[in-house]
Specification:
6 helices, 17% strand, 7 strands, globular, disordered C terminus, alpha/beta
């Protein structure tokens, strides 16, 4: 697994060092949210955790994450609604939304796509595979930043290691 010195969670543009990339982990299961955040910190990312949808909406405005991992089945505001509201916020919209759920059927995948998620990951996920996925997501988000528009580059862009994402999904 890449460590903090690998550069995975940080990027530099010519002449300008950038701070670590920010990731928001949203899950009502505190252990899941905290362990994901810890793994991402080890990889060099700056993380925040939220245990409900309302907290995620506030954190989006104050923390301004590039990637949000969101559990679908949370009490109160479910992950679909969190995604829709994040994408509707005017001040800041995360570059990439990732659904994390135990549901793997086609109806669940359609549900996450409809809500605006960029990727659907099934829990529990192997940490090595998660590392591959996060690396590909980070590269997609970095390309989106450089192109200046969220829709400019998808996570399936050939320069973003689609093969890595496909390999991680297996």
């Amino acid at each position: 697994m890449p460590g903090p010195g690998s550069g995975l969670g940080t990027t530099e543009l010519p002449g300008e060092p950038m701070p670590p990339f920010r990731v928001l982990c949203v899950d009502d299961n505190h252990d899941c949210a905290d362990s994901l955040a810890l793994l991402l910190q080890v990889m060099g990312f700056e993380t925040r955790t939220c245990y409900d949808g309302r907290c995620a909406l506030v954190a989006n405005q104050t923390f301004r994450p590039g990637i949000c991992f969101i559990d679908l089945n949370m009490p109160g505001m479910d992950g679909d609604e969190v995604a829709r509201q994040l994408l509707a916020q005017d001040d800041w919209q995360p570059l990439l939304l990732v659904a994390m759920t135990a549901m793997s059927d086609e109806a669940s995948r359609l549900r996450t796509t409809t809500a605006g998620f960029d990727m659907h990951l099934v829990k529990p996920m192997d940490p090595h595979k998660l590392t591959l996925v996060v690396d590909a997501l980070f590269r997609a988000a970095e390309l989106r930043c450089r192109h200046g528009a969220p829709e400019a580059v998808s996570v399936h862009h050939p320069d973003v290691a689609t093969q890595t994402i496909d390999q991680a999904r297996r």
